[in-house]
Amino acid sequence: MLNQTVGNFRVISLLGEGGMGVVYLAQHPEIGRKAAIKVLHPELARRPDVVTRFFNEARAANAIRHPGIVDVFDFGTLPDGATYITMEFLEGESLAARLKRVVRLPIAEAVEVASQIASALAAAHAAGIVHRDLKPDNLFLLPDPHTPERPIVKVLDFGIAKLSVDTSGSGSVKTRTGTVMGTPSYMSPEQCRGTTAVDHRTDIYALGIILYEMICGQPPFISAGYGDLINMHIAAAPVSPRVHAPGVSPELEKVMLKLLAKDRGERTQSMGDLQRALKANLGKSVSTPDMMGETMSATPIPPRSDLPVHTTFTTAASMIEGEAAPTGRKWGTPALVATLVVAGIVAAATLSGKARDAKTIPAPASPVAAPIATPVAPEQPPAISVKISSTPAGARLVREKDGANIGVTPFDEAWPQGQGVEKLELELEGYLPEPFAVPLDRGVELSFPLTKVPSAAPKHKRSAPHETPEHKGTPELSEPVPL
Known about the structure:
This protein is α+β, with helices and mostly antiparallel strands. 23% of the residues lie in helices and 20% in strands. Helix 4 (107-126) packs antiparallel against helix 6 and helix 6 packs across helix 9.
């Protein structure tokens, strides 16, 4: 593949190799933009089910369009039959690599990371996509050039995602019936049971496991055997997070344990709800004055050596389904990226000094007027442009959460920038309602052709005016009944 051209990019080096395929570094020859190209191994590229899961990542990323989802530029099949995905090149490290290195994150940082993941998945769920394999290996941390202590999170590997809407134009993508898919340490109870009714709340459970691991230094359930681990997800109660991390506040502990409810109806019901709960508890996430949450448990937890080397390929499907990974292959470079950027954490210097004796301070000769403070207007969040149109115009925009009518089409307003999505519905008499979601982190311009309500066919009048026993009391219909 070296020096070959794939789409608009030329392959310049090998980044890594795993059981599913190879990752190359490529560069656009004209503008210099870098990209990562993932190529399936030839023996796997001949299997339609594996290729479908491989391309699911590209379809999902294209459907979501969120800054927290890795950007996919292109995907397809090369003349020699090799299947590939071209995506943005990321410089940083996976959350799995970070946890292997530092064991746990400060509580405030863990809450921030979880909030960013929830924002990205809220957009995925609004697009009808459930990840189903959320884990630290599939979460990538990038240094924020403006705020080094705040990582930027990217969600990867939608390879086994459930696409409940058609994003390819050729019918919805489905997995084999009854197949258990996921990674055991992060699978929801409903995934462990193999039920087909897996919805967005399985991602909420997995994020609960990840948040627990980031704060406590280990997942809530640990076992050497897959069977025991699955039974724990189904029946065992997690140990209180405060046992491992005493600095966790009671409010944050309540949020964490609600994510891990066995009954999905008792969990936090949406990623938006989770974002709001984390934001409300961020200021009181620790029960000590140290807001970075560095309080450790009494017994230090040694670094974990059982974590796999990071790869952006989804290997969980072959592990759970019993598919043997190709033999004779070993890792090249240990990560998707060529550079690990470790964000430096600047320690705040404590100013100390001896208190001066009040008696030694001379009184001023004359009163000095205190300077008049100039009032500073509070900083307003940046605005986003929201433009909604419909054919025909005049449809009402109804907010889902409270049923409020916020305007009619054509709709053009500036909203404060935020996180998550605002779910709305277009309503116009004589037309079917049109539900949709507006992402709050960027401006949108959407247009919807409304569908007319189908007319009911009129029933024929009976030839005899007398009622028959089986139709007694049923009114005659000479024209359509309004819906």
